[in-house]
Amino acid sequence: MTDQQGDIITFDNVGLRYGTGKEVLSDVSFTLYPGSFYFLTGASGAGKTSLLKLLYLAQRPSRGMIRMFGTDVITLPRNRLPGFRRRLGVVFQDFRLVPHLSAFDNVALPLRVSGVRESELQKPVADMLDWVGLSHRAEAKPATLSGGEQQRVAIARAVIGRPDMLVADEPTGNVDPEMALKLLRLFEALNRLGTTVVVATHDVHLLKKVPESLIMRLDKGRLSDPTGALRFPPRRPPRRDDAL
């Protein structure tokens, strides 16, 4: 996990354009600290997905500086990127579950890729499925799961490695309001373990339950803070003695 005294990620005057088009993100600056929990919102086309891609290192900016875990990731050699990505958990809007794998095997995938022995991953994967309420669906393939169940499998897969930061793109977009609140509680439980959480959403019902101070708003590629120097301190001190 990250040193609790430092920042986990800093954007400094970041801009992003695709090809020769106009910038989709302009002069984006903010700092997130370990243990913080924030929501990212904005109208369709505001740049939420582009900002998330920068956060989980799927895209490099056109200009500006991004520091993650104390390192300038823009100048980071590409062969070091996988190590940084392993410290991140990502919940994609379209889930991206492997269709021929069971729920158990989808959740176990990050551990297997990291070289964890089969004998050592059985319990943590089973515990994670229990944590998201899907122990009874462990052997089910994605096609037989509901949208909400697929979403919970995707969340379990994203957090099985206890990431330093979780990035979730519209995690409540395909579920009903009751399930949306359940998913939010899962994110809050992970946050209490010390993980920084960023959730992109346009769910107005969800945002109404969130203090304005916890919302990052994008408008036409810019964060709405007029100073352009947003700093987001921890929402609460993380409790590392909690257990899943």
Query: Might you state the CATH topology name of the largest domain?
Result: Rossmann fold
Q: Unreliable runs, pLDDT <50, ≥5 residues?
A: 236-244
Structural class computed from helices and strand pairing: alpha/beta
Could you estimate the helical fraction of the residues in percent?
A: 25-40%
Query: What string, H for helix and E for strand, traces the elements in order?
Result: EEEHEEHEHHHEHEHEEE
Shape: globular
CATH homologous superfamily annotation of the largest domain: P-loop containing nucleotide triphosphate hydrolases
CA gyration radius, whole angstroms: 18 Å
Question: How many strands appear in the DSSP assignment?
Answer: 11
Looking at the overall shape, the CATH architecture of the largest domain is 3-Layer(aba) Sandwich
Q: Number of helical segments?
A: 7
Report the average pLDDT across residues. 86
Q: Report on the biggest sheet.
A: 6 strands, mixed
List keywords for this structure.
23% strand; alpha/beta; six-stranded mixed sheet; 11 strands; five-stranded mixed sheet; disordered C terminus; 2 domains; 244 residues; Rossmann fold
Structure description:
With 244 residues, this protein is α/β, with parallel strands linked by helices. The chain contains seven helices and eleven strands. It starts with 8 loop residues before the first strand and ends in a 12-residue tail after the last strand.
Question: In a nutshell, what does this entry contain?
Answer:
With 244 residues, this protein is of the alpha/beta class. Helices cover 29% and strands 23% of the residues.
